[in-house]
Design brief:
Layout (H helix, E strand, L loop, with lengths): L4 H5 L13 H10 L2 H26 L2 E2 L6 H12 L8 E2 L2 H30 L5 E3 L4 E5 L2 E10 L5 E5 L3 E7 L5 E7 L6 E5 L2 E7 L11 H6 L5
Antiparallel strand pairs: 1-2, 3-5, 4-5, 5-10, 6-9, 7-8
Length: about 230
Protein backbone atom coordinates (compact mmCIF):
# COMPACT_ATOMS: atom_id res chain seq x y z
CA UNK A 1 0.00 0.00 0.00
CA UNK A 2 1.15 3.54 -0.62
CA UNK A 3 2.18 5.76 2.28
CA UNK A 4 2.84 9.44 2.58
CA UNK A 5 6.51 10.26 2.12
CA UNK A 6 6.33 12.85 4.89
CA UNK A 7 4.94 10.33 7.35
CA UNK A 8 7.88 8.04 6.64
CA UNK A 9 10.53 10.71 6.99
CA UNK A 10 9.19 12.63 9.98
CA UNK A 11 9.58 11.18 13.44
CA UNK A 12 6.57 13.00 14.86
CA UNK A 13 3.50 15.06 14.07
CA UNK A 14 3.52 18.86 14.07
CA UNK A 15 0.37 20.48 15.45
CA UNK A 16 -0.08 24.19 14.87
CA UNK A 17 -0.15 26.50 17.93
CA UNK A 18 0.75 23.79 20.43
CA UNK A 19 2.53 24.89 23.64
CA UNK A 20 6.24 24.09 23.93
CA UNK A 21 7.33 20.75 25.34
CA UNK A 22 7.00 20.54 29.12
CA UNK A 23 8.78 18.37 31.68
CA UNK A 24 5.92 15.89 31.34
CA UNK A 25 6.69 15.52 27.64
CA UNK A 26 10.37 14.98 28.50
CA UNK A 27 9.38 12.26 30.98
CA UNK A 28 7.32 10.41 28.37
CA UNK A 29 10.06 10.81 25.78
CA UNK A 30 12.50 9.11 28.15
CA UNK A 31 9.98 6.30 28.64
CA UNK A 32 9.77 5.76 24.88
CA UNK A 33 13.52 6.14 24.32
CA UNK A 34 15.85 3.11 24.14
CA UNK A 35 17.43 1.96 27.38
CA UNK A 36 20.83 3.30 26.32
CA UNK A 37 19.43 6.79 25.75
CA UNK A 38 17.53 6.72 29.05
CA UNK A 39 20.56 5.64 31.09
CA UNK A 40 22.78 8.21 29.37
CA UNK A 41 20.13 10.89 29.98
CA UNK A 42 19.96 10.10 33.70
CA UNK A 43 23.76 10.02 33.94
CA UNK A 44 24.01 13.36 32.13
CA UNK A 45 21.42 14.91 34.46
CA UNK A 46 23.35 13.78 37.54
CA UNK A 47 26.64 14.96 36.05
CA UNK A 48 25.22 18.40 35.27
CA UNK A 49 23.87 18.75 38.82
CA UNK A 50 27.27 17.82 40.25
CA UNK A 51 29.01 20.33 37.99
CA UNK A 52 26.62 23.12 38.95
CA UNK A 53 27.08 22.53 42.67
CA UNK A 54 30.83 22.05 42.20
CA UNK A 55 31.01 25.57 40.78
CA UNK A 56 29.02 26.85 43.78
CA UNK A 57 31.31 25.06 46.25
CA UNK A 58 34.35 26.35 44.39
CA UNK A 59 33.32 29.99 44.88
CA UNK A 60 31.72 29.64 48.34
CA UNK A 61 34.45 27.47 49.81
CA UNK A 62 34.13 26.10 53.33
CA UNK A 63 34.93 22.45 52.48
CA UNK A 64 37.07 20.77 55.12
CA UNK A 65 39.82 18.53 53.72
CA UNK A 66 39.67 20.11 50.27
CA UNK A 67 42.65 21.85 48.71
CA UNK A 68 42.27 25.59 48.34
CA UNK A 69 41.20 26.54 44.82
CA UNK A 70 40.79 22.91 43.72
CA UNK A 71 37.76 22.49 41.44
CA UNK A 72 38.23 18.70 41.37
CA UNK A 73 37.90 18.50 45.17
CA UNK A 74 34.74 20.62 44.97
CA UNK A 75 33.35 18.36 42.26
CA UNK A 76 34.05 15.13 44.14
CA UNK A 77 32.60 16.61 47.31
CA UNK A 78 29.45 17.35 45.30
CA UNK A 79 29.40 13.75 44.04
CA UNK A 80 29.70 12.40 47.58
CA UNK A 81 26.95 14.73 48.78
CA UNK A 82 24.37 14.06 46.07
CA UNK A 83 25.03 10.30 46.30
CA UNK A 84 24.94 10.40 50.15
CA UNK A 85 28.28 8.54 50.24
CA UNK A 86 30.04 10.66 52.86
CA UNK A 87 33.55 9.18 53.07
CA UNK A 88 34.51 11.78 55.65
CA UNK A 89 37.52 13.10 53.76
CA UNK A 90 35.50 16.17 52.69
CA UNK A 91 32.99 17.92 54.93
CA UNK A 92 31.35 21.37 55.17
CA UNK A 93 32.80 23.78 57.70
CA UNK A 94 31.14 27.11 56.79
CA UNK A 95 27.54 28.33 56.79
CA UNK A 96 27.57 28.77 53.02
CA UNK A 97 28.81 25.24 52.47
CA UNK A 98 26.21 23.86 54.89
CA UNK A 99 23.44 25.68 53.01
CA UNK A 100 24.67 24.33 49.68
CA UNK A 101 24.81 20.79 51.11
CA UNK A 102 21.22 21.19 52.30
CA UNK A 103 20.00 22.31 48.88
CA UNK A 104 22.00 19.63 47.06
CA UNK A 105 20.64 16.94 49.37
CA UNK A 106 17.09 17.95 48.48
CA UNK A 107 17.94 18.01 44.76
CA UNK A 108 19.64 14.61 45.08
CA UNK A 109 16.53 13.07 46.66
CA UNK A 110 14.32 14.45 43.88
CA UNK A 111 16.69 13.22 41.14
CA UNK A 112 16.87 9.77 42.73
CA UNK A 113 13.06 9.61 42.93
CA UNK A 114 12.62 10.70 39.30
CA UNK A 115 15.29 8.29 38.05
CA UNK A 116 13.80 5.40 40.00
CA UNK A 117 10.33 6.21 38.66
CA UNK A 118 11.57 6.31 35.06
CA UNK A 119 13.45 3.01 35.37
CA UNK A 120 10.53 1.29 37.14
CA UNK A 121 8.05 2.58 34.56
CA UNK A 122 10.20 1.37 31.64
CA UNK A 123 10.54 -2.07 33.20
CA UNK A 124 6.78 -2.23 33.82
CA UNK A 125 5.74 -1.30 30.26
CA UNK A 126 4.42 -4.45 28.53
CA UNK A 127 5.71 -5.14 25.06
CA UNK A 128 3.62 -7.16 22.65
CA UNK A 129 6.50 -7.93 20.27
CA UNK A 130 4.22 -8.42 17.29
CA UNK A 131 5.88 -8.17 13.86
CA UNK A 132 4.03 -7.03 10.75
CA UNK A 133 5.01 -7.93 7.20
CA UNK A 134 6.81 -5.12 5.41
CA UNK A 135 4.38 -5.14 2.50
CA UNK A 136 0.69 -5.85 1.96
CA UNK A 137 -0.22 -7.64 -1.26
CA UNK A 138 -3.38 -7.88 -3.31
CA UNK A 139 -4.02 -11.38 -4.66
CA UNK A 140 -6.91 -13.73 -5.28
CA UNK A 141 -7.92 -15.97 -2.40
CA UNK A 142 -10.66 -18.50 -3.11
CA UNK A 143 -11.37 -16.56 -6.28
CA UNK A 144 -11.88 -13.21 -4.50
CA UNK A 145 -9.38 -10.32 -4.82
CA UNK A 146 -8.03 -9.78 -1.32
CA UNK A 147 -5.67 -7.51 0.56
CA UNK A 148 -3.34 -9.76 2.55
CA UNK A 149 -0.55 -9.20 5.04
CA UNK A 150 0.89 -11.25 7.89
CA UNK A 151 1.54 -10.71 11.57
CA UNK A 152 3.83 -12.80 13.72
CA UNK A 153 4.38 -13.39 17.42
CA UNK A 154 8.05 -12.85 18.29
CA UNK A 155 7.72 -14.37 21.76
CA UNK A 156 8.01 -18.07 22.55
CA UNK A 157 4.48 -18.23 23.88
CA UNK A 158 0.89 -17.90 22.69
CA UNK A 159 -1.24 -14.78 22.54
CA UNK A 160 -4.65 -15.98 23.65
CA UNK A 161 -7.75 -14.60 21.93
CA UNK A 162 -5.84 -12.35 19.55
CA UNK A 163 -7.95 -9.68 17.81
CA UNK A 164 -7.18 -7.59 14.77
CA UNK A 165 -8.70 -4.37 13.43
CA UNK A 166 -7.70 -2.82 10.12
CA UNK A 167 -8.23 0.86 9.31
CA UNK A 168 -7.34 2.68 6.12
CA UNK A 169 -6.60 6.40 6.02
CA UNK A 170 -6.66 8.30 2.75
CA UNK A 171 -7.07 11.81 1.41
CA UNK A 172 -10.59 12.47 0.11
CA UNK A 173 -12.57 15.42 -1.21
CA UNK A 174 -15.81 16.30 0.60
CA UNK A 175 -18.99 17.47 -1.12
CA UNK A 176 -18.05 21.00 -0.07
CA UNK A 177 -14.76 20.74 -1.95
CA UNK A 178 -12.49 20.43 1.10
CA UNK A 179 -9.67 17.91 1.35
CA UNK A 180 -9.70 15.75 4.48
CA UNK A 181 -7.99 12.61 5.69
CA UNK A 182 -10.77 10.06 6.19
CA UNK A 183 -10.47 6.87 8.24
CA UNK A 184 -12.28 3.84 6.84
CA UNK A 185 -12.61 0.45 8.53
CA UNK A 186 -11.69 -2.54 6.39
CA UNK A 187 -13.67 -5.65 7.43
CA UNK A 188 -11.52 -8.74 7.78
CA UNK A 189 -12.27 -12.28 6.72
CA UNK A 190 -11.42 -13.28 10.29
CA UNK A 191 -10.93 -10.74 13.10
CA UNK A 192 -10.11 -13.12 15.95
CA UNK A 193 -7.75 -16.01 16.48
CA UNK A 194 -8.04 -18.37 19.49
CA UNK A 195 -4.26 -18.27 19.85
CA UNK A 196 -1.39 -16.61 18.05
CA UNK A 197 1.64 -18.81 18.30
CA UNK A 198 3.56 -18.09 15.12
CA UNK A 199 1.98 -16.23 12.19
CA UNK A 200 -1.46 -15.10 11.12
CA UNK A 201 -2.50 -14.01 7.62
CA UNK A 202 -4.84 -11.01 7.76
CA UNK A 203 -7.26 -10.94 4.84
CA UNK A 204 -9.60 -8.21 3.64
CA UNK A 205 -11.74 -9.26 0.69
CA UNK A 206 -12.10 -6.56 -1.95
CA UNK A 207 -15.78 -6.86 -2.75
CA UNK A 208 -18.29 -4.30 -4.01
CA UNK A 209 -18.66 -2.98 -0.45
CA UNK A 210 -14.90 -2.56 0.07
CA UNK A 211 -13.37 0.97 0.02
CA UNK A 212 -10.63 -0.55 -2.17
CA UNK A 213 -13.00 -1.85 -4.85
CA UNK A 214 -11.88 0.70 -7.49
CA UNK A 215 -8.42 1.54 -6.16
CA UNK A 216 -5.35 1.52 -8.37
CA UNK A 217 -1.68 1.97 -7.66
CA UNK A 218 -1.86 5.56 -8.92
CA UNK A 219 -4.96 6.40 -6.87
CA UNK A 220 -3.42 4.96 -3.70
CA UNK A 221 -0.29 7.05 -4.15
CA UNK A 222 -2.26 10.20 -4.99
CA UNK A 223 -4.57 9.82 -1.98
CA UNK A 224 -1.64 9.07 0.39
CA UNK A 225 -3.32 5.86 1.50
CA UNK A 226 -2.06 4.27 4.70
CA UNK A 227 -3.06 1.17 6.64
Amino acid sequence: MATSQNSQEDSGIDVVNTPPDSLTDLYHRMLRAPWTATVLGIAAMILIINLVFAVAYYYVGGIGGARHGSFSDAFFFSVQTVATIGYGAFYPVSLGAHLLVTVESIVGILVAAISTGIVFAKVSIPTARIAFSRKAVIARLDGVPSLIFRVGNLRRNYVVDAQMRLTMTRLEMTKEGRSIYRMLDLPLLRERSPSLGRTWSIVHQITEQSPLRSATTESLVESETEL
